[in-house]
């Protein structure tokens, strides 16, 4: 089945994990996060490594280890997390270049650009603190 908007598993893991960590009163380890988000522990661990590398999280090893936020929840917007995984969101047309399109008006009524901008604005304006 095709999707109009496709959010990668890595982006979804990053966002869901950071929200889960922000909601928790205690450190959460990779196993707990993988179980609660129903994703592969190995994939989650790779994403958590990126989140730590980019300064969103701090991690402690060992039996009492886990992850905690390295920033306040109102300092992290969903766009930060999404673009950490995917790179920056570009405003593109349906075929990538309106200047070479043979049609006078956009066949899709400019919706691809509109959806992209609305999605980006939602991510930009939604903080982790809004979701906890």
Topology:
Blueprint: H1 9-23, H2 30-37, H3 41-53, E1 57-60, E2 66-69, H4 78-86, H5 111-125
Helix pairs in contact: 1-3, 1-4, 2-3, 4-5
Structure description:
This protein has 132 residues and is mainly α. The protein has one domain (9-131): Arc Repressor Mutant, subunit A, CATH 1.10.10.10. 45% of the residues lie in helices and 6% in strands. It has helices spanning 9-23, 30-37, 41-53, 78-86, 111-125, and strands spanning 57-60, 66-69. Helix 1 crosses helix 3, helix 1 (9-23) runs antiparallel to helix 4 and helix 4 packs across helix 5. It is elongated and about 65 Å long. The protein starts with 8 loop residues before the first helix and ends in a 7-residue tail after the last helix. The model has no long low-confidence stretch (mean pLDDT 89).
Low-confidence stretches: none
The CATH topology corresponds to Arc Repressor Mutant, subunit A
- In what range is the share of β-strand residues? 5-15%
**What is the rounded distance between the termini?**
32 Å
Mind telling me which CATH architecture this is?
Orthogonal Bundle
CATH classification, class level: Mainly Alpha
What characteristic shape results from the CA principal axes?
elongated
Number of structural domains:
1
Question: CATH superfamily, called what?
Answer: Winged helix-like DNA-binding domain superfamily/Winged helix DNA-binding domain
Question: Based on helices, strands and strand pairing, what is the structural class?
Answer: mainly alpha
**SSE sequence, one letter per element:** HHHEEHH
Mean pLDDT: 89
Instruction: Please give the share of residues in helix.
Output: 40-55%
Number of helices, where a helix is a run of at least 4 consecutive DSSP H or I residues:
5
Strand count, sense and barrel status of the largest sheet are: 2 strands, antiparallel
Q: Number of DSSP strands?
A: 2
Strand order of the largest sheet: 1-2
Q: What radius of gyration results from the CA coordinates? A: 18 Å
């Amino acid at each position: 089945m095709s999707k109009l908007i496709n959010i990668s598993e890595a982006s979804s893991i990053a966002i869901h994990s950071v929200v889960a960590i922000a909601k928790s009163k205690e450190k959460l380890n990779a196993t707990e996060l993988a179980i609660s988000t129903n994703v592969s522990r190995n994939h989650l661990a790779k994403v958590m490594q990126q989140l730590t590398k980019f300064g969103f999280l701090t991690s402690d090893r060992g039996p009492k280890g886990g992850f905690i936020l390295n920033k306040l929840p109102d300092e992290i917007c969903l766009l930060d997390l999404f673009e950490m995984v995917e790179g920056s969101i570009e405003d593109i047309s349906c075929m990538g270049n309106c200047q070479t399109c043979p049609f006078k008006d956009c066949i899709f009524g400019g919706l691809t650009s509109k959806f992209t901008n609305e999605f980006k604005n939602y991510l930009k304006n939604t903080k982790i603190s809004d979701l906890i």
